[in-house]
Specification:
Blueprint lengths: L7 H4 L8 H9 L5 H8 L4 H4 L11 H7 L5 H4 L10 H7 L5 H11 L9 H10 L5 H7 L7 H8 L4 H20 L3 H17 L6 H9 L5 H7 L5 H8 L7 H10 L7 E2 L3 E2 L1 H7 L5 H9 L5 H7 L5 H15 L1
Antiparallel strand pairs: 1-2
Length: about 325
């Protein structure tokens, strides 16, 4: 049966009474036609149907749609492993009634052959972000191709686990773009998704708020809210930062900047003019960061030592003590 010179009329004699190995060989024989493969695949055991995953280009939409009602659930859940999967098949699998199958589609979208931001892939990603199953949403929520609307939906998901994972994925993108100096990518992402993260500062789940407060790239407005969170464990996370988020200068430039004016010291931190403006901010997180900054003028530090917020006063007093030594 493995002989590729074997004619189809001989291969057609193979039926379900043959051993698993014989049927697999007949299925894989290059002379086997769609009718023979369909006959062998229907009403057979899952072990045999695994042969579908290795069909490659022979796994055509015609073959799939003609036989999908015979596929075992565990095989459908593994379709993401098949090479050369036609887009129409992937789209059909994304609408399957089983969450396991739809999770398989999410895994397929992570593969190198599905990573491009094609219209079809983007439609799949953003549709799966609104899937009825929280397990599917938990799988898709880290995809960087999610648009702002899908991210907003996931950040307000009923599941705190989904909300937290989505938020951490966005913050992780911020960190990656800053560390690699992809500042244009950072800026575009910040403009689109920072407002969504600010809303997370009042999330009812304290684990979500802790994760946001602990991030060095969290939007300053969010950290200002968390700075005085009702739970001390959350507030303490927001008060220990000593690295400026890039969002500080992006917010300033959006509010005060022009095409030729920036507020940057280097690429991502505030300059002297920015520090002066930030020292008078209503945001206690920003005032504390100014008090901690080694480039802040001594006159500003002394003024912050009388700040109405105890955490800001403490930071300014510590800076004054350090500079006096």
């Amino acid at each position: 049966v493995e002989n590729h010179a074997l004619p189809l009329e001989i291969l057609n004699r193979i039926d379900h009474s043959e051993t698993l190995g014989v049927r697999r060989a007949a299925f894989r024989n290059q002379n086997a036609d769609v009718a023979l493969r369909s006959r062998l695949i229907q009403r057979c055991e899952p072990e045999f149907q695994q042969v579908i995953l290795g069909m490659g280009k022979q796994l055509t939409p015609q073959f799939y749609f003609s036989n999908k009602d015979y596929f075992h659930p565990e095989i459908l859940a593994r379709f993401n492993e098949a090479n050369g999967l036609h887009p129409s098949i992937l789209d059909d699998l994304s609408r399957d009634s089983s969450p396991r199958v739809r999770i398989g589609v999410v895994k397929r979208l992570r593969r190198s052959d599905c990573r491009r931001s094609t219209p079809r892939n983007l439609e799949l990603v953003n549709r799966l972000a609104r899937d009825a199953s929280s397990d599917v949403r938990l799988e898709i929520c880290t995809d960087p191709r999610l648009n702002a609307e899908s991210s907003a939906a996931l950040l307000s998901d009923p599941s705190a686990v989904v909300r937290k994972k989505t938020m951490r994925a966005i913050l992780g993108e911020f960190t990656t773009f800053r560390d690699r100096r992809y500042l244009g990518c950072y800026t575009a992402l910040y403009r689109a998704k920072a407002p969504l993260l600010v809303k997370m500062a009042t999330d009812p789940d304290h684990a979500v708020r802790i994760a946001l407060a602990a991030s060095q790239e969290a939007p300053p407005e969010a950290l200002g809210i968390l700075f005085d969170d009702a739970e001390e464990v959350v507030a303490s996370e927001a008060r220990v930062h000593d690295r400026w988020p890039f969002g500080v200068v992006l917010d300033l430039e959006k509010k005060y900047g022009t095409a030729r004016k920036t507020f940057r010291h280097g690429n991502t931190t505030p300059n002297a003019e920015a520090l002066q403006i930030l020292s008078a901010s209503k945001n206690p997180y920003l005032r504390q960061m100014v008090a901690k900054c080694a480039r802040t003028k001594i006159a500003i530090i002394r003024k912050l030592a009388d700040d109405p917020h105890p955490a800001v006063r403490s930071a300014a007093s510590a800076t004054l003590l350090k500079r006096a030594q």
